[in-house]
Design a protein that fits this description.
Blueprint (H helix, E strand, L loop, with lengths): L1 E7 L2 H12 L3 E4 L2 E5 L2 H14 L6 E7 L22
Antiparallel strand pairs: 1-3, 1-4, 2-3
Subunit structure: Homodimer, forms a heterotetramer with a Cas1 homodimer.
Protein name: CRISPR-associated endoribonuclease Cas2
EC number: 3.1.-.-
C-alpha cells in the first residue's frame, strides 16, 4: 500500500516523530512523509505514532492508496527532498 502521512505536532515531539517515520517512509517536506508499506508496517507506524504524540494537542493525518499508480504527484517550486526510484 502507498501511504502519505502529514502531521502537525508540538515542537517538543517533532524530532522524535520525524526520526521514527524516517525508519519506514521517505521524508518529502516538513511534516510530510510518503512511501510503500506492508499492512504490518503500517500498523507498527500507527502504533508507534500513538505512543509519541499527545492526542489532545497533536494531529496526524494519513492517506492510504492501494497502489502508487493511482497517485499523481506534482510539485510547484523547489523540491525539498527528491524521492529516487533507484536502488
Amino acid at each position: 500500500m502507498y501511504v502519505i502521512i502529514v502531521y502537525d505536532i508540538g515542537e517538543k515531539r517533532v524530532a522524535k516523530v520525524c526520526k521514527f517515520l524516517r525508519k519506514y517512509l521517505n521524508w518529502v517536506q516538513n511534516s510530510v512523509f510518503e512511501g510503500n508499506l506492508t499492512e504490518s508496517q503500517f500498523e507498527k507506524v500507527k502504533y508507534g505514532l500513538k505512543k509519541l504524540i499527545c492526542e489532545e494537542e497533536d494531529a496526524v493525518l494519513y492517506y492510504v492508496f492501494s497502489t502508487p499508480k493511482w497517485v499523481e504527484r506534482g510539485i510547484l517550486g523547489k523540491e525539498k527532498n527528491p524521492i529516487s526510484d533507484f536502488l
